[in-house]
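Researcher: Here's a chain I'd like modeled. Treat it as a single chain, no partners, no ligands.
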Amino acid sequence: MKTLILSTSALALGLAASVSVANAQDRTLTISVYSFAQDAYKEALYDPFEEICGCELVIETGNSVERMAKIEANAADPVIDMAVISSHDALALAEQGLLAEIDTSALSSHDLLYPSAQDPLGNGMAVGYTFYASSIVYRSDLVTVESWADLLSPELAGQVALPNITGTQGPLTLMMLNAALEQDAGDFSPTIDSIGESADDIVTFYSRSSELAQLMLQEEVIAAPVGRFAWSRFQDTPFPFAWADPAEGQAGGMNVMIMTKDNGNEELALEFMDYWLSTEVQTRIANARIDSPANMEVEVSDEIAESLTYGAELINSLTILPPEDIIANRDAWVDQWNRTVIQ
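Model: Modeled as a single isolated chain. Structure tokens:
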């Protein structure tokens, strides 16, 4: 009888161990991210986390419109556990009741974030993980860019790309062009009309930074607004690209982490967020020139900093369009854009 009991106990322990291994192998986190720099992210972030957690990351990419639509379409039964997205898109999802509140007590690096990144929406539904400046990249051997208004100048006609209004860079470009054209800060309508009047002189209205980079490397475009997170695409080429310092300044924004409501995978999502926000990982990502850090402890060389939106002085100098302003006006902007720009 004693032998039987020992054997049964051993069997139970064996089954428990098997279940534990199986559960570890079955841990899967589905994340929705921007499509740029995915090979670099795999090396710096995804692979190391999978090794630590014994889990699998399923990576879904796309532009903001596509990724938001997927979260909205699957609200009743989420297929995305966690996403990184612009602050205004995160606010739009939060207002639809599609996001879960983030338990920041589970994020060991939360207090190390710049204060504006700790609760960027003011409702506990997001955490900032990167800042980005937005300015104009241009071919310094062919043109000089001193103002956002230069994008609509006769000298650059037929050689400029602008971001689509529905992309992350769209509202920021509108804001800075509005300032350059000395329009009322609260009304972008005249600026959209000005873009419409120049639409035939715009090579394209791009949706992805990778699309823009290809056009500029093919020398079809010599100037365009772009986020700093894509700047390395242009630095590492044989062409003399420059980052403009326009008279009106640089726009700026923040991308944030969110969790979908009732996804059932909240614990693993928080583990991944905590890893991503850690000083170690934010430093690794910064040194790879993938994204700029929101963690204040990150230190990088002057050479690396030149590729990033790095440090309190630069971050505090950016002109940021409040997420709530974008949400309140986006439908009207898109409607006017479709009528006057995309004809």
